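Regression test attached.
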Amino acid sequence: METILVIFGGQSAEHDVSIITAINSIITPLILTKKYKVLPLYISKTGQWYCDKALSNIELFTSGKIDNFLIKSKPVSLKFNNGLEIELNRLHTKRLKVDLVFPAMHGTFGEDGDLMGLLEMSGVAYVGCGVSASAIAMNKVLAKQLALGCNIPVSKFLAFKTSDFKLKLTKVIKNINSRLKFPIFVKPAHLGSSIGISRVKNNDELKNALELAFYYDDLVIVEEEVANLIEVTLPIIGNDKLTPALLERPMLHQADFFDFETKYLKGGKKGAKTGSKGSQGYSEVPAKLEKSLYDAAQSLGLKVYQEFGLSGIARIDMLVDSKTNKVYFNEINPMPGSLYSHNFQKAGISNVLLVEKLLQLARERFKARSSVVTTFKTNYLKQF
Amino acid sequence: MIKALLSLYSFKFPTVITYMLQASEYNMGAYFKWLGRTKNFNQVIKRKSLVKTQVSDLVLLGLRLGIIGQIILGIVIIILGLKNIFIGGQYYGLAIIIAYPLVWPYLIVLLLTIAKVFFINPRDIKLATVVDDAFRNYSGEVVAVMGSYGKTSMKEILLTVLKEGKTVRATPDNKNVVSSQAKFVKTLTGKEDIVLVEYGEGKPGDITKFAKITYPKFAVITGLAPVHQDYYKDLNQQAEDLLSISKFVSSDNIFINNDSELTKKYMNNIEARSFNQKKVLDWKISDVKISIHGIKFIMSKPGRKLSLEAKIIGRHQVTFVAFAVAFADLLGLSDEQIVKGVANIHAYEHRMQPYQLAEAFIIDDTYNGNIEGIQAGLALLKELDFKRKIYVTPGLVDQGRDSAKIHFRIGEMIADTNPDIVVLMKNSVTKYIVNGLESKKFNKELRIEGNPLEFYLNLKLFVAKGDLVLMQNDWPDNYS
């Protein structure tokens, strides 16, 4: 029986979202298959790593009992011994060999390539995008620059570093005013789940928006809003052969956008008091667009997936100008919240089938990478 | 082993024993068999729970008081032993305390038997008299609805159609024992044109017992299939029980559904009017169309043609609906009333009841409990057009000596239907179904689920758009 390690939590603003993704959409379906030994590995907000069956239970987190649990538990260690092993520090130290890792982390350290680097080094198969694809996908500036290089249309944008904001604020504002038209979006370049994003209509709001974005990141992207906007997103799975799910349209007013609260705490509904469905609560699946526009958006999503070298799973966000019917690439989410299983379900792929397909894609990618030669004999050292 | 031993002394133990008695319908043979099989009493209540009734409350109270009494007795004897009043009392006392789980599961049966002889049997006789008094000079016409399967569906279909033109009452849900009928007759006003009474057949003589006190004018037999085989010697005896209705109803007024081969074989030795999927009384059935949303068909006879549509699924339902149409016609309902009545028919809870879950269609047929129902369900699964078909069943209960043979046949029937996934709830008959599947070289996915509750609760994770899941039968814990 294969041992699957599901890593979630982490020192990221999307820590809590990761818990839901991991337990509801990955661990539970994996356990239900009865084909795998599933090990939940939880990274606390302080960075300790814990591995215990009890961490598969969502109630441990929703009830707040997790804090007490962590006090009583001992963190685990990782061992790299021709693959990855988890060392459980209990009465007797026990090592568990991991066959495959299913990262379920969102945002910093988890979705941005950092964790993938660790997994590559340890020589273990893992689900999802590789190091460079993840790093580019999670850097909105790099992603847009790469898109431009691949002739993929993007909205007008500018990028600024913390040093620009601290030392040359007036110049930054002037630059934005001269090159972009309001309304604009100000976003931290590396964060997902709409954290730290502001929609800015005029100069008065700009400084606060920049301040907020730089609070979360050292790189900020400022983008011109696409007129007559329809936002759409396309979840895709695959390595070389791609399977798109359905084009999804989050239902919101043009004047609004999904901030973290709207997206996750209000079930995706503007003005809703509470929500329990996370980001899947309020959207149109499939998006009701004219067939030609739907096809155009789907083609662009698939092109982005291929050009960026994404693998396993990713979600491509796009912006549509409903008057000109032009589709722009917006950003990539290499680990969509809850795997966007609601969308795959409507596309005919159950949650259980989805995780199994992702495991298979991870095995295939690992096998392909393992066949690549990375070392060879040289006479280099002999010259010293 | 230790967990199993500790379960005997769990606080839940009396509740578990009461639950086992209730789930066995206070049938001592089934209860003792279950008791003998059970190793860990904490693992008994998995899918259902104890339903609070007067009897279960009394049994639970009796068990708790009895156990407490035995523990107190043990403690007293220990104390007497420690004070040297009763030499060795500490050992005897301890033995008495430890022994309570071995005593009360049996002692409670003795108490129940006494209660049955002195209270329950006399009460049933009294209740039968209540039913008899209500029906003996009743002005309305009583229709007896009986059979090994589909009697509740048939009764509900008849009720829905007939009430378009008549004042009709029917015994509620699947309540088909004397006590429920006694409650029901108290609600009758005496102004009803028709009363539909469902007869439960659980052991030989049941049909005669019901007929004697309900005075039926009509009888409809939905079909014969092996059920309650722990009580009936064989299918012949079961058929005889159903056919005993001929002693109370004239042959012109007995209607037998002979769609099934078993019914044709075992129920042909009385004068009666048979009906089936092609012909009901003098009506012909044609143009049958089946979908997940319902059935459509045409009924015709010289000079008349009815186009009918009902929100009930399965080809086998056509026979039931068609009978209701013909019977309504016989009782004088107009064509308009009949068509309207049929349009009002909908799926009944847990009987071929379709619903949507996570974009998939689920057909809940968990109240089905016989091989004819399995056959009908599988035929529907085969007939409907879906991307992926999933079949879920634990098998059948009460199949007696032929259980292995019947379940092997079920396996064969499933393999012939060729669903994409077969999910079997693990129990004592699983191996026979698997053998049947293997004999037909079934090569699609087979899942054997040890934890049905977990499966049902997480069903939404297994399915997606384009899936059709048929869930047949709800295997109670006591047959595991």
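Expected vs. actual: identical. The longest helix of chain B spans residues 100-136.
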